[in-house]
Amino acid sequence: MTLGHVAGAVGRMGRYLFQGTFYLAAISTECVAFAVRPSSWVRPVRSRFVRQILFGGVEAVPFTLFAGGIMGIILTINSFQWLEFTGRSEYLGPALSVAIIREAAPFFACVIIISASASAITTELANMKVSGEIDLVESQGISLIKFLIMPRSIGLALSATGLAVVFVAAAFTASGIALLFVGRIAPGPFFTSIFQAISLADYVNLIGRSFIPGYLIGGICCYEGLRVAEHTTAVPQAVTRAMLRSVAVTLIVSAILAVLTYL
Fold first, then answer.
1. CA separation (Å) from 142 to 27, 28, 44, 129, 230?
2. Which of 14, 72, 95, 147 could make an S-S bridge to 174, C-beta 3.0–4.6 Å?
3. How far apart are CA 59 and CA 115, in angstroms?
């Protein structure tokens, strides 16, 4: 492979990334423009919005409780062992608040959203595109962004935020239960130290790192689903691209917000 081939491949990749970022930004902006208009929330749009929250958020609550509880126990035991070894076990509450609120909760919430909804949304819209339903909707003068994309994106954003809060509650509850078995730190002072350690930046970080990626994940899945070629073999490829790019945008947004809120 010559240098020219490498440069060409890099150029095509850069052009594709720029095009995808541009379309995602345009779709997200137009979704916001539709969302702030009360006239956009007609009955079919409200119905899709509610179903998206139900399927993407409410039905994922049991697994989020399970994941949050398991992570809370794991982080508590490991953090306690290391802090006790260094003689700083009184910092267990602040350490867990950093690990759970800043990092684990928003990331796991987005991963759960991707696992539960990304493939479903992409597959649904891709099949609609292949079967000609999308062309039929457009021929009737209906906006795809208002009717299909906006309720899904906002529904996923709210679902991700809610799941992050559920994850935090489950993780800290499991931490308190784990401390009862350890028996060396009273739950009362432990929870007091957690609330004292939480700052405004933590709340902003928790909401921002779950709401914004959730919103963008909805746009990515809809975009990938609607851009498939008109044959069924392209559907699995669209699902794979949507899930990988959803994970990528989650990491990018998390890094950006971490820098903005804590540096």
1. 16, 18, 12, 15, 20
2. 72
3. 12
Distance (Å, whole) CA 6 – CA 204 = 42
Residues shown for the chain: 263
**Total number of domains constituting the chain:** 1
Tell me the whole-structure pTM to 2 decimals.
0.88
- Give the HSE-up count for residue 2: Cα atoms under 13 Å, Cβ half-sphere: 3
Q: Which domain holds residue 93?
A: 3-262
Nearest to 225 by CA among 119, 99, 93, 102: 119
Q: 150-182 and 3-35 helices cross at what angle (nearest 10)?
A: 90
- How far is it, in rounded angstroms, from Cα 54 to Cα 85? 45
CA dist list (Å): 222 to 3, 151, 216: 36, 11, 10
Tokens 């790019």 belong to residue: 245
Closest C-alpha among 29, 33, 60, 25 to residue 159: 60
Encoding tokens for residue 62? 């049991």
Sign for the CA dihedral angle at 263, 106, 65, 84 comes to negative
Which residue type does 165 have?
V
- Taking the chain (263 residues) in runs of 10, the rounded mean pLDDT of each run is 62 65 82 89 91 91 94 87 75 84 91 90 90 85 88 94 95 87 74 84 90 93 85 84 91 89 75
